[in-house]
Amino acid sequence: MKKIWCRLLIVICCIMGFIGLGSVPAQAAVNHTLNYFHYNTFKDDDGRNWVRIEMGMNKGELEYEVSENPDRPYHLILTLKNTNRGDVKKNIGLDRKIARYMTLKNDHRDMVVTLAVTDSLSDHEYKVYTAEADRKAKKPYRLVIEVAADKGAQHKALGDESLEGVEGFTVVVDAGHGGSDTGAIGPSYVREKDVTLNIALDVARILEANGVNVVMTRTTDVDVYGPNATDKQELQARVNVSRRHPEADIFVSIHCNAFTNSSARGTGTYYYAHGYRDSLLAQQIQDEMVAATGLRDRGINQARFYVLRNSWIPATLVETAFISNPYEENMLASAEMQHTMALAICKGISNYFQSIGR
Ligand SMILES: [Zn+2]
Question: Residue 81 Cα, ligand 1 centroid: separation in angstroms?
């Protein structure tokens, strides 16, 4: 018996050794896992503003590709070979002045990073390089992206982001959920709170660029009232942001819809009829959303949502699409669709202000 065991052990050791040896070349190629994310803005010697994005990972010698797609001039695409997103978020809002936001998507063994910039890439200078770990600064090995502000940004026409008749108005933009409240979570784990924040930040950026005074209920991933508040406290906190600004003209809340049946789909906008302006605002946004996204038109509906019912100013709540529907979840996660929706909401707001006049 003993002899057999010994032989068996030897055989097992041989097999293990063989497997171990065999996997060496494969190991060398795989498994960069992100474990660090940081961004900041800085000025170069010429006084030009830059944004620097650092994605840290567990080990060095990363292979990556940088590409531009002529059909998507606002997006810089990086493919990180054999890399996994780790704990780093899928959707990350950035400074909004140079870079809007980025999305990280696992694609088989690689990870695809899409960085959405504010102007066409041809107007931005950018650099992509790797940096060794910096123990003093507590930074691991990183892939670094630096993007400069467009030199002529201030003097350039706003292009397709220009809005009529909005200058001087005040808009409260409410990114649904946040912090301890993720909102609905899609089948691929896209979180409503991330999508709503990205869209809301982009709405704010576009409105501000057109001379609108924007008030946001949140600009980062936080609870507005505080962690673990009751629903009512949290929603009242959002209403209060609006009430603290008596000059505010309208309140726009951004959400994603969800339903137990994953085939439910489309875009819908809600209002509580304090007056005709609520439904007018809802309809204008709904029309632009449907035109821009091509999603099923669920129309506008009255609803007793807390933030709408308790608003002192015309208010609407946009259910952009169904995060519980795998197809629409995918759309909601894409930087391009988030921008399309943000622009549609802004156009709806512009149409509303034009129809009510000053
Ligand atoms: Zn929601």
Answer: 35
Looking at domain 159-356, does it have CATH number 3.40.630.40?
yes
Q: How far is the CA of 181 from the centre of ligand 1 (A)?
A: 10
Q: How far is the CA of 174 from the centre of ligand 1 (A)?
A: 11
How many A from CA of 151 to the centre of ligand 1? Answer: 38
* Three-class HEC string of the chain: CHHHHHHHHHHHHHHHHHHHHHCHHHHHHCCEEEEEEEEEEEECCCCCEEEEEEEEECCCCCCEEEEEECCEEEEEEEEECCEECCCCCCEEECCCCCEEEEEEEEECCEEEEEEEECCCHHHCCEEEEEECCECCCCECEEEEEEEECCCCCCCCCCHHHCCCCCCCCEEEEEECCECCECCCECCCCCEHHHHHHHHHHHHHHHHHHCCCEEEECCCCCCCCCCCCCCHHHHHHHHHHHHHCCCCCCEEEEEEEECCCCCCCCCEEEEECCCCHHHHHHHHHHHHHHHHHHCCCEEEEEECCCHHHHCCCCCEEEEEEEECCCHHHHHHHHCHHHHHHHHHHHHHHHHHHHHHHCC
Q: What is the pTM of this model?
A: 0.60
pLDDT band at 29 (very low <50, low <70, confident <90, very high): low
Domains of the chain, by residue range, sit at 30-148, 159-356
More confident residue, 150 or 1: 150
Distance 144 CA to ligand 1 centre (A): 34
Q: Output the six-digit token pair for 142.
A: 């990183």
Domain 30-148 part of CATH 3.90.190.20: no
Task: Calculate how far, in angstroms, residue 103's C-alpha sits from the geometric centre of ligand 1.
Answer: 21
Cα–ligand 1 centroid distance for 317 (angstroms): 9
pLDDT in tens, 114-158: 888 877 777 778 899 999 999 998 999 999 999 988 765 443 444
Distance (Å) from CA 184 to ligand 1 centroid: 7
> 254 near 319, Cβ under 8 Å?
no
